[in-house]
Amino acid sequence: MEVLIEKVEEEEEAEQEEGAERPVKPEKMTKLLQKETTTLTQETLRNMEQKMLEIKVPVPKEPLTKDTIDTSKLPLSYKINTPKEEQLLQVADNFSRQYSHLCPDRVPLLLYPLNECHVPKFVSTTIRPTLMPYSDLYNWDSCAQFVSDFLTMVPLPDPLKLPRYLYSSTTVLRYQKGNCFDFSTLLCSMLIGSGYDAYCVNGYASQDLCLMDLTREVCPLTMKAKKVVRKVEKAPPKKYAIKPPRDLTSRFEQEQELKRQREMKAAEEKRLREEEERLLEAEKAAPDSLHGLRVHSWVLVLSGKREVPESFFIDPFTAHSYSTQDDHFLGIESLWNHKNYWVNMQDCWNGCKDLVFDLGDPVRWEYLLLGTDKPHLMAGDEDNGVSEDDDDVENLGKEDEEKSFDMPHSWVEPIEISPEAFETRCPSGKKVIQYKRAKLEKWAPYLNSNGLMCRLTTYEDLECTRIVEIKEWYENREDMLELKHMNKITGLNIDYFKPGHPQALRVHTYKSMLPENDRAMEFYESARVDSLIRREETPDTMTEYFQERPDFLSYRQVNYGPRIKKPAPSSTESNPRPVVKITERFRRNPAKPADEDVAERVFLIMDERIQLRYHCREDYITASKREFLRRTEVDSKGNKIIMTPDMCISFEVEPMEHTKKLLYQYETMMQLKSEEKLSRHQAWESELEVLEILKLREEEEETHVLTISIYDTKRNEKSREYREALERVMHEEHLRQMETQLDYLAPFLAQLPPGEKMTRWQAVRLKDECLSDFKQRLIDKANLIQARFEKESQELQKKQQWYQENQVTLTPEDKDLYLSYCSQAMFRIRILEQRLSRHKELAPLKYLALEEKLYKEPRLAEFLKSFA
Amino acid sequence: MNRLYDSMEPRVMDDELLKLAVAEQGPREEAGQLAKQEGILFKDVLSLQLDFQNILRIDNLWQFENLRKLQLDNNVIERIEGLENLIHLVWLDLSFNNIETIEGLDTLVNLEDLSLFNNRISKIDSLDALVKLQVLSLGNNEIFNMMNIIYLRRFKDLRTLSLSGNPISEAEDYKMFVCAYLPDLVYLDFRRIDDLTREVAEIKYQYTIDELKHRETLTQAQQEEARAQREELEVHKAGFIEHFNSSFLFDSMYAEDTEGNKLACLPGVSELLEAYPFNYKDKFVIICLNIFEYGLKQQEKRKVEIDTFNECIQEAIRENQEQGKQKIIEFEEKHLQNLSAIREESEMPVIEMKIVECGEDITQLFNVLMTLELQLVEQLEETINIFERNIIDLVGLFIENVQSLMAQCRDLENHHHEKLLEISINTLEKIVKGELDEDLPDDVRTLFVDKDTIVNAVGASHDIHLLKIDNREDELITRVNSWCTHLVDKIHTDEIMRNRKRVKEINQYTDHMQNELDNLEFGDILD
Predict the structure, then answer these.
(1) How many CB atoms lie within 10 A of CB B232?
(2) Residues of chain A contacting residue B27, judged by C-beta atoms under 8 Å apart
(3) Which of B34, B309, B383 is closest, CB to CB, to A642?
(4) What confidence tier does B173 reach under pLDDT thresholds 50, 70, 90?
(5) How far is residue A254 from each of residues A244, A261, A262, B446, B521, measured CA to CA in Å?
(6) What is the pLDDT of residue A400?
(7) Is B230's pLDDT higher than 80?
(8) Helix H or strand E segment including A803
């Protein structure tokens, strides 16, 4: 192996030398621009290069060594080059030599690295545009995410040099490993396949990108969605808008106050900014000594196709998109797609910020093959035509050759991703990404028995030692748990559920699972009969919020008092907290007048009082109120006082006659009493429900059953069983059909001379034969049954005889054995008897049926008709 | 029924009878005791049962304003009367009586269930007001004409009907007929109408019903149209420019003008009047149309003005109310705390001090609320004044412009008058000279006796025309002005009313609070 590589190296060197020596066509020269100045001076660069060449460690270790790759099963296109590919390689070789001659101080291009079979292949042919069958992989973001998840990143053997090998995407996919070039080739293939105008880029990027170091990136999941600050549109003051009341405060004082506040704020801000800067300083990485030299490969998506409004970069390692002006990208050597190869002729002193991605501009981008479909964007058509004509005239041979030359078809097999692999995504189903102050772990579905898909751990410090919060995403859980949010600092846990939880739970916020503690539950109110939307609990209150109830109840708060200690310890279990107060609020019922529509009622159960507050009338500022004293009293004579005027204190906005009546008050109070009972009962039920939910939650946490979609044919046991059963039934059905289609005339027809038409005599004979045959069969069957019957009865007789003889000496076990045998034998005999009689009954019928059938048989009918 | 009638004297519905009935049917047990203590007012009664009382005349029911259900069955009532005040009535039972005609139900718009079973009714009518009627029982009566059923088509909610025991129910196709003509009916004669019967009936009477329906839709469309026209006229009237969109004014000018009509048959006059394009009538109508359009525009403007004004005022009031409510809520919270503190306190001097504090709080609330209200009053007054000025300006502009357009009309009339006079004098001269070719009707010829007569006649015609124009103008201006003053007055009075109401409310509230506090004081002292 090593010998081979060295050989290749030698060849390459030789080629380079050759290219340098070979005279370059003058028009090519004119096209090539002067070399750009990178951030480093030419001298240092050259020195470095020299050093690199000198250093040259004995064969850098390939991450995917050739030994591990099984090349035996690869198709032929991987192992040899077609003539066309050979031709292309020659063209590329030529190009490379011209290039190195014209730009001697630029690094050589990545044109035809070796593939896994050590065959040089042109980079463009390594891109195999493929449209994936998964709808999820239709858009660039999901594609990139898939590639970054699916492959494990392997750093380049030498961060400053181009790789010697570029494997096919199929191999990369099989081993799920690759360097940045493998990543971008695969991603590019997928993107071009789904219609994007995508290119593989060979260039230079920052250390973080090259090494997939996300520890300085803020995790995208931790970023909060920016709140869209909606500008409150200030309506222009209307013509008759009233003037505000005169402001009598001192303006001077206000100004002074404002000034003072501003100063304080400024000081505060300054302090904060300093703090922030200090933090930033700490976070900033040590300057990279190899800045600007690290080779990287990424993907460029140009605007135009698939409604991409603006060109952007995708880093295949992280699947993040960057603008083309991003600081991370420090320069571009070349880029290619499946059709052509372009070399950047623009200056990269300012990273990629000033690059113009107009690939049709031959001054900025030197192309390898002429006649691509890339339109010349900047230069006018006319100019182009002229220049090309000139080319033709001056340099017929080469241009003709190139012009007629198309990029050969890719040598790579179509990219295939099995559904299992697609679902598993990450190698062995698990992936961990370290972000700045955060760690993200991903799992494949059904890998964890509790449905855990993703966990994000956020830390307080950069070293990731003190956990701030943990977020866990779940999927396919039967309890519909979607997200678990655990705040380690406050100890607050929040569970989010998707619609479909048996108790319609949506969000559950709690600190501990013990009942009667601080907690809040939110519900999918449309799934609940009582339209409950939220229930909050503290140790001594329970507040419920309702929405859109037909009785207009919107709020209920129950206040509990301290538990009364009961002497009997046995009844501790059913010792509820005493209810002190129930407050209920109602929305306005438009069907009732405001004075009769209760807005709030408070049952002070301990004080035996009921307070009512009514809704406010349309143009009033005070609302009616009523207070009932529920206490039943006894007057001096010992009679019960039913109702006295001082048992009801009321304030009415507009005093009405009928409400003053004791009867009215009495009836209202009676009604309220019954409603109080009802409210207490509902509060009690709510308490029970909380207990039930908590119990259910605990059970769910313990068992964590996962649901399997009925469409998931692999995992769903039930559906598989069902399907198999169906298949079995189908199979049996098929067999039966085969049987019915059995031709009972076939054996007899076979006897006839083939190819001849049947005569009538033959037909009659055939029929008779068939019938007699059937008759024989019936008789045989009867005989068989008869024989079995006789045999069985004989055996029984023998046994009986034996029993009679040895009756005295037999042990009880033997006796039992004999008896059971007898009963079984009798049973068999009886069955045989029945069968025989049934056969006797049916045989003539069957015979007749066959005869009938034969008469109707189409093959014989014409002969037998006249006969009959 | 007859037996009852024979055995007992007919009774009168007097106060005693009613009181007894009310007391008997009133609440029971504890509530009953209370009711007895207090007595029940007739207007609080919701349901009243007066069956088997041998009542001859319905009377004395005017006090039962809120009655929902009234049972007067099995009496000897002969006329439906005295039910005018029971507008909330939903359920009325008048079965087993001696009623002969349906009457006196015109005010019972809420009635849903009416029973007139076993009476002597022979014709269904006078039920037009009962738009909510759902159940109608007319069994055992003397209805003999099938066409009575068509009358029932107007009750869209009618679901249950009983007509058995009437002469019509003897008819062969009675059931089919009812089903066909009342397709929304669910129960007939206490039985559910099955779908089959309904279908058969529909097919049987399809043609007649279709015809009926067609007629009904036609009348409805006509009514719609008439209503739309009326509405449009209303809109125009609100803009004070009704009839300006046609030649109505011009026609009215000539309607009472005998001389003008006579003169119209002079040669050349009809051309002057009618000939196209620059004749008198067309020009006149064009000006009228101008007035009309201008009037509509102005009306729109005024409407916008009023709407913005109302909106702003409402907004201001609402804002003020919110502030007031907020203040009250704040106060109530504090007050409640104070009161509970007082209740728990045992030291007399502390209690008194706290009570004084509470009293101060109430006064302060009163002051705050009153300040708010006064502030609002000031603000509103200013705005109202601005609005008043603007609306008066608008109206003034409108009047001015209309007047100038009317002046154009008058100019036209003057011009026409001159021309007419000229023609008339020419004709007179011709007649005098005997050169006139055409034959003139005799009554016209009588005008051409001498110059004075003809000038007088033409002048009279002119005067009438001018008078008409002037009248119309005056009418418009007076109406606009009166509308304007009315509007402004209303705004002022509304504002005053609002202010009074609010002040009263605030006073009432603070008084109540103070009273409560005083009571508390009392109670404490008693304790």
Answers:
(1) 12
(2) 663, 667
(3) B34
(4) confident
(5) 18, 11, 12, 95, 44
(6) 41
(7) yes
(8) helix A760-806
